[in-house]
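Postdoc handover notes: sequence design on the structure in folder B. Input tokens:
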């Protein structure tokens, strides 16, 4: 059985990557997709395969509200995927072209990122009123991220997710001078967690005074970290002057590859001049995670049995339990029941 969770919104790309009139091919959860933006700015997504002879529609172009196939010029409406023109037909041909359809996927741009909803069966008509909206970062209105970085991970999404939520790898994997100076000093960490909708969260707490770079946000800073299925992590820092948020979303490309999107939002004025530097640091940090995962694949190729230990791997255990419960609730057509219970986790890092 596939380990990829459908019926969720997944991030496709940062909005700035897709210009009006442009289409981009994306493989998401194994589905070949075309994500596009009409000249009027409307986002859309459809299966990137022409129903005529299978060529990816993304090789074609956008004409008004339709995608035109580059092979024989068939046109498909971006809104519902209906075929609206077959140029080679004569007027007395009685082919009902509107019955030819390309599956469309719900797509939206939210806070500067483009999201696509991946349903269980893309050919089935979706009741849009029944699906939720893409995740929204609270307190940031319609703001676009100051920084957005995309990085490819050549692994199953589960390893990317548990690798990122794992508090014990930090001192070994993230050793850049700007992150950790001097020899490693391990300290006991003790943090309270509780269930959150479709996930869990670090109960908000006040940051210790010593955290220097955070002082930009003010004197008293509260931190809250939320993980939500399928793969969203929001780290919110609310200071008495300003606030900032690091939002991470991971999208499976297929069973063995995924893409991580990191968006940073902030309200601190003047921070834009540090954008290039912040971008480099974010990239470096994420590539450290990616590089260790590449090494891990060498071992995983032998399909070894693996371990999750308490408490540093408890969040990973929760992730697998959330996933399992989600699949079970779908199978049994019942409400999802969050399996996470409030708990204080302790580890050294
Ligand atoms: S293959 Fe697309 S129109 Fe023929
Ligand atoms: Fe990491």
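Designed sequence:
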């Amino acid at each position: 059985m596939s380990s990829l969770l459908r019926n969720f919104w997944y991030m496709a790309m940062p909005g700035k990557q897709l210009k009006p009139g442009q289409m981009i091919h994306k493989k998401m959860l194994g589905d070949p997709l075309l994500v596009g933006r009409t000249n009027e700015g409307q986002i859309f997504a459809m299966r990137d395969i022409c129903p005529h002879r299978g060529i990816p529609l993304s090789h074609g172009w956008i004409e008004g509200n339709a995608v035109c196939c580059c092979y024989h010029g068939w046109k498909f409406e971006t809104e519902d995927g209906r075929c609206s023109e077959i140029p080679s037909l004569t007027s007395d041909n009685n082919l009902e072209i509107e019955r030819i359809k390309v599956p469309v996927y719900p797509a939206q741009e939210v806070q500067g990122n483009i999201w696509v909803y991946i349903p269980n069966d893309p050919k089935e008509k979706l009741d849009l009123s029944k699906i939720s909206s893409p995740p929204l970062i609270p307190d940031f209105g319609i703001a676009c991220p100051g920084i957005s970085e995309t990085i490819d991970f050549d692994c199953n999404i589960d390893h990317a997710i548990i690798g990122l939520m794992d508090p014990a790898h930090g001192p070994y994997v993230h050793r850049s001078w700007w992150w950790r100076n001097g020899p490693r000093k391990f300290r006991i960490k003790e943090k309270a967690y509780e269930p959150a909708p479709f996930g869990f969260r670090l109960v908000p707490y006040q940051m210790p005074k010593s955290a220097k770079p955070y002082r930009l946000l003010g004197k008293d800073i509260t931190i809250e970290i939320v993980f939500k299925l399928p793969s969203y992590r929001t780290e919110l820092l609310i200071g008495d002057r300003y606030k900032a948020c690091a939002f991470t979303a991971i999208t499976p490309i297929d069973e063995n590859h995924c893409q991580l999107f990191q968006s940073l939002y902030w309200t601190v004025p003047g921070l834009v001049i540090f954008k290039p530097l912040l971008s480099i640091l974010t990239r470096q940090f994420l590539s450290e995670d990616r590089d260790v995962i590449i090494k891990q694949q060498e071992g995983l190729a032998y399909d070894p049995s693996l371990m999750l230990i308490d408490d540093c791997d408890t969040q990973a255990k929760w992730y697998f339990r959330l996933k399992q419960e989600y699949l079970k609730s779908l199978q049994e057509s019942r409400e999802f029941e969050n399996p996470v219970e409030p708990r204080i986790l302790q580890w050294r890092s």
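Context for whoever picks this up: The chain is about 15% helix and 35% strand. Don't rerun without checking with the PI first.
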